[in-house]
Write a structure and sequence with these properties.
Layout lengths: L19 H6 L6 H7 L39 H4 L8 H5 L13 E5 L3 E2 L27 H11 L5 E3 L4 E4 L26 E6 L2 E9 L7 E4 H11 L4 E8 L3 E2 L9 E4 L4 E5 L8 H4 L13 H7 L14 H11 L5 H23 L18 H6 L6 H10 L17 H15 L8 H10 L26
Parallel strand pairs: 1-3, 1-8, 2-4, 7-9, 8-11
Antiparallel strand pairs: 4-5, 5-6, 6-7, 10-11
């Protein structure tokens, strides 16, 4: 099932540093000091001021890599393909003039449920199905928007989260509808179930044309254009919305050069959309997605050794830490069942939604740590990444949430802190009874570790531990 995976693996050791392939690909992991500075506001020196009067914030100690490991950077991963992606520091985030700030009157996150399908385009139901689905689990239901809203509410606490009351619906697109008149007409329907070019997406009294094309890699029969879908998001954005995410069950594409696109956000416009289609667990075999070696077991040295040339360095078992607590909880959640696959599907979708909403807050892709804001080069890489925010991006959310209570951003992280948010996430997971489920158990174990409930170090703990020296793969 898993690419390079062994279901009987005991995960006896973990690595918290980039693989040796990272160096070959041109990725340089920032030093502990660089990572610590990235999470602080660095005040520029006053022009013509004496050196003694230059202002700077004290540099905190970098957190232990056994709490916040480095990105793995394996072959085909996003950072392996684009190793010089410019890192975003907290200072750059804070000073970004194009970033939308949260205000008391515009502070709510909205989630729009996937559109229903009208009878006249009933054939769109078949577009959910893939010839590559594993049997007998191809009928696993789509994740619930209510469950996703519960997660986002905890993850971006204290921002209010609501489900969009406007119901969206797919219907026939009328060819004679001019772009200036999006109201649906009753005649000349041109949506052809055999060779569809367009469908309509209705919202209230408007109907927006959505381009359709055959799926280039034939994973699904057809795809919908995400830019057209984002046009709908902009029209249904409520006045009190800080941002909105539209959920789609259909596969999506962005332009003619794409095979597919699972999500996109336009931060300045405060809109985003996500597709759950490629995250369906029944595609895991086809997409070489690791299950037993999904995060946190993606940091297992035996797993990485199966993907890369072996290393002469003998790894050592790491001490008890949030990552080892996460691994223990993740391992105990197996073997899989149909319920477990539904749990995986939900956790993947929640991770995707939190990532795209992070972009609407002004956060760029993370290059500092393994982080929910990392870019993703494949479904397999996505499964290897965590659900948490790293210290740099967590600091950004600390800052922006100040606006929920009407406070001004001042660079001190005046909003809700990381520990309080993670406490809310753990409370939500346990309240839903997900803490033992595949896809959630590892995250719950990690959260207990950073909150000091599992015997590991607390999130404030710092220092570079000896685990930083564990390297998988031979040197170039």
């Amino acid at each position: 099932m898993d690419q390079g995976s062994n279901d009987d693996c005991l995960h006896t050791s973990l690595t918290f540093v980039p693989s040796a392939h990272a160096r070959r690909a041109g990725y340089r992991h920032p030093t502990p000091k660089e990572r610590a500075l990235a999470a602080t506001l660095q005040n520029p020196p006053t022009i013509n001021a004496d050196k003694r009067s230059k202002k700077s914030n004290p540099v905190p100690e970098a957190p232990s890599p056994s709490t916040f490991p480095a990105p793995l950077v394996l072959p085909g991963d996003d950072l392996a393909e684009d190793p010089e992606w410019p890192p975003q520091t907290f200072t750059e985030f804070f000073n970004d003039p194009d970033r939308n700030k949260i205000t008391p009157s515009r502070n709510t996150i909205y989630l729009a449920a996937a559109p229903s399908i009208g009878k006249e385009v009933d054939f769109m139901h078949s577009w959910f199905q893939s010839p590559h689905f594993d049997s007998p689990y191809s009928s696993i239901p789509q994740p619930s928007v209510d469950d996703i809203a519960s997660y986002i509410s905890a993850f971006y606490h204290p921002m209010p989260v609501r489900i969009l009351p406007t119901k969206l619906k797919f219907s026939v697109w009328e060819e004679d509808d001019a772009p200036s008149n999006r109201k649906r007409r009753k005649s000349n329907a041109t949506t052809n179930k055999d060779k569809p070019k367009y469908v309509a997406l209705q919202s209230l009294d408007e109907s927006t044309r959505i381009r359709v094309r055959p799926c280039p890699d034939s994973v699904f029969p057809y795809q919908l254009n995400l830019n057209d879908i984002l046009d709908v998001a902009s029209t249904v954005l409520p006045p009190d919305a800080y941002a909105i995410t539209l959920m789609m069950n259909h596969d999506m594409y962005e332009d003619d050069d794409d095979d597919f696109c699972c999500g996109r956000a336009y931060g300045a416009s405060r809109i985003s959309c996500i597709s759950t289609s490629r995250y369906h667990p029944s595609l895991d075999t086809f997409q070489h997605v690791p299950r037993t070696h999904a995060w946190p077991a993606s940091h297992c040295t035996s797993y990485l050794s199966s993907l890369l040339p072996p290393s002469s360095k003998k790894p050592t078992p790491p001490p008890k830490s949030p990552m080892t607590l996460a691994l223990s909880s993740h391992t105990s959640s197996f073997p899989l069942s149909e319920h477990g696959l539904s749990s995986i599907y939900l956790s993947r979708t929640c991770r995707l939604a939190s990532h795209e909403l992070g972009h609407t807050l002004g956060m760029d892709h993370c290059t500092w740590y393994a982080c929910v804001m990392q870019g993703t080069g494949s479904a397999a890489e996505d499964a290897r990444q965590p659900m948490y925010l790293c210290p740099v991006h967590g600091r950004m959310v600390d800052e922006v949430t100040a606006g929920v209570g009407g406070r001004e951003e001042d660079g001190t992280g005046a909003g809700v802190g990381m520990r309080e948010r993670y406490g809310k996430v753990l409370e939500m997971i346990e309240g839903k009874g997900w803490e033992g489920s595949v896809g959630w158990a590892g995250f719950a174990g990690w959260l207990r570790g950073v909150l000091g409930e599992g015997g590991g170090e607390r999130v404030e703990g710092g220092g570079e531990s000896s685990e930083e020296a564990i390297v998988i793969g031979s040197s170039p």
